[in-house]
Amino acid sequence: MTELILHQFASSPFSEKLRLVMGYKKLSYMSVTVPAIMPKPDVVALTGGYRRTPFLQIGADIYCDTALICDVLERLQPAPTLYPASMQPLASILAQWSDSTLFWSAVTYNRGVKGAGSKFGGTLVDPVAAIFEDRKAMGFNIDWWQPGDAAPAYQSYVVQLSSLLQNQPYLLGQQPCIADFCAYHPLWLVHVRATAAVDLLQHYPAVKGWVDRMQAIGHSVFEDIDASQAIAIAAASDPVPIGQGPLPSRVFQDEHGIALGSQVAVTPQSFGREPTTGELLAATESHFTLRRIDSRAGCVHVHFPRIGYVLKRQVL
Asked: What DSSP character marks residue 144?
């Protein structure tokens, strides 16, 4: 297996989700630290426009969105599994809720007085303002709840998690699954990164114990490399042929009337709506694959999940 390269930054909660998954599966990797805010020219050289963090590189294949990346890691290292067969549908639904509803409630809560002060501690000049302005440009410019409204909503979700954890160590049983990793990273953002907010969990010992157990999984072994090295690896590699590798499906599922080989754009549906353009190589029930050429990275295949992404014909 070609070396895994995780493009991330330390305070990114979705990066923490993958760092923990790597630790759980004992997958070593190379790590590239990407900028927390734009511009990101080295990121764009590999993704073609996609700017969210993190993304995974394997040679000249670029996997975007942690939902798809977790599927890729599961296929590369099936044990221990993220998707126990007996609870896979429920685990996937809970994971999607965690990555969306729970995550945004945590972000809103963390933006209040308790969380914001310790979130990016000293890494940038006026870091919270810089991050917030950048995220507004990504489409985060929403009607934020006031702290007095955000706190009860977030707490209600913590209560629901506590109910699941009363009689078992993890959300759906005796072992962690994809739902645990997805639910953990929003709480990591609030209660581990922003320690001023940790008092809330003292009222929910089942959740506090679960957070401690998830944190104890730890991170895997990694080697730091810089972005130029990662781009050189892509340029020296050939993408995995369609139908092989960790996304093996060859079935073309046409929902758009766009033929394979067409020039298309794939754009996140919610935020960070910078499009990635290229030749459509795959459109399966689960993912899209685009072929693109970059002057630095060479020929790369960029992969996106179907859920949460919009496919359109590129107007030339």
From this structure: P
- Three-class SS state of 231: helix
pLDDT in tens, 174-184: 999 999 999 99
CA-CA distance, 56 to 304, in Å (whole number)? Answer: 11
Which structure tokens are listed for 32? 């590239």
Q: Is-contact 23 220, C-beta < 8 A?
A: yes
Cβ within 8 Å of residue 43, ≥6 positions away: 7, 34, 35, 50, 51, 55, 227
- Phi, psi dihedrals of residue 278, rounded to the nearest 5°: 170, -170
- Asked if the peptide bond before residue 80 counts as cis, ω within 30 degrees of 0, the response is yes
d(CA 64, CA 67) in angstroms, rounded, equals 8
- Smallest CA-to-CA distance from 261 within 243, 278, 239 is with 278
Which regions in the chain score pLDDT beneath 50? Answer: 113-129, 141
pLDDT of residue 133: 57
Three-state SS at 291: strand
- Residue 208, φ and ψ in degrees, nearest 5: -60, -45
Question: Which of 257, 245, 268, 271 is closest to 313 using CA atoms?
Answer: 257
